Amino acid sequence: MSSDASTAVVDSDQVFCFRPYEVKRVKYKSYTKNGRSRPFARSGHRIVCDDAAIYCFGGFNPNMAVVTDDDDDAGSRCLFQELWKYDIVRKEWSLVMGPNHVLPQELASNAMILLGETLIVFGGTGFPFGVNCSNRVYVCQPEKKPKEMTEVKVKGDLPPAQYGQAIVYHDGHLYTIGGTEGFDYTCDIYRLNISSKTWECAYACRQDIRDDPPGRYRHEIAIDDERIYIIGGGTSDSAFSLASIPTYHIRENVWSYTATKPDPNLPLPGVPTARKCHSCVQYKTDQGTEIVVAGGYDGRTYYGDIWKLNLSSLQWQLMQKSVLPHPLFFHDAACSSAGCMYIFGGIKFSSNNNVRTNIVYKMWTTIPKLSEICWEALQHYVPDMANRSTLPGLLSVGIPLKFAKRVHEQ
């Protein structure tokens, strides 16, 4: 199937057309559940996903504060102390945990990953930004009861309390890189041994060492079996290049810079412009690990472009058929195991105004297996499948177990 292929299934009433690389707005059911039908518009939040659901934690919106005359903590009301779930099959938002639960107070520009069934939240800041920062680790299993988020009791050489850092899991360790407390920026690397719950400083950057990258925040991370790549990021008044990528060699415990190749179909420089506050996801294909970078800004210019980088060939490709409806930054993205990228929230630049959003977009970053295309078609033609069939019922009509579990046993 060619790179611009599309697959159509036709009947007398409607058409299902599968188009990879096309950015689509995700529809959801509008109804009231737990007092609200969906998350408010926000920026500075984090999302993760598996093949069945998207989880959104935290965020900030200065226009959503509820202030009273005797309110001396109005700023904190701009932060969203909540965990939301979007059910991909049912197309429904639900509030998993809110202010009535014990949740972190540092709700902006933290970092979050999904490890199996466990959400891990690290760092972040309260309001005013930089005054209250975190170096605490929280975990929860949103599909299990009781619904709670607990702080992990750790020891060792703890990383500084910061926000805007990036985290990744590798070989039994949680790595955190970079961040700021509002004035100084780092690119130091700390790692937490998940088994012993012990922190250690793996690498402290020095500006007198040529290959040590300068400090930054709101960058993203990509990883292969041996290296961690730092994708963009910046400071309050700068943004870093994506043409030459700081690369941490895990086993050798050294930094270097990885030169990337421009898109051969574009005039030079043919690579993404420097940016921060963008999103980045990664997934594995037959051609190796690929990452997709979307949106961001550099302090002056706002971006709605989408780029792909293959970590084997190190060649950038501008996704010319993929573009965000508006330039977008301070959003977040997550990717399913099959390569479907979801983008939620952020600040969109439209008509010379910055407006926060709560829209979900999806884009297939690759051509998936035929079974995934068939599953998309089935959801299109049977939108109430979750309410019509039990797990045994889905299995009895030939739906594979891995797809049936996306409907039930969540």
From TrEMBL:
Gene3D superfamilies: Kelch-type beta propeller. The keyword Repressor does not apply. Keywords: Kelch repeat, Repeat. Coiled coil: none annotated. GO terms for biological process: positive regulation of stress-activated MAPK cascade. It comes from the Eukaryota. It holds the Pfam family Kelch_KLHDC2_KLHL20_DRC7. This is Kelch repeat protein. The lineage of its organism: Eukaryota, Metazoa, Ecdysozoa, Arthropoda, Hexapoda.
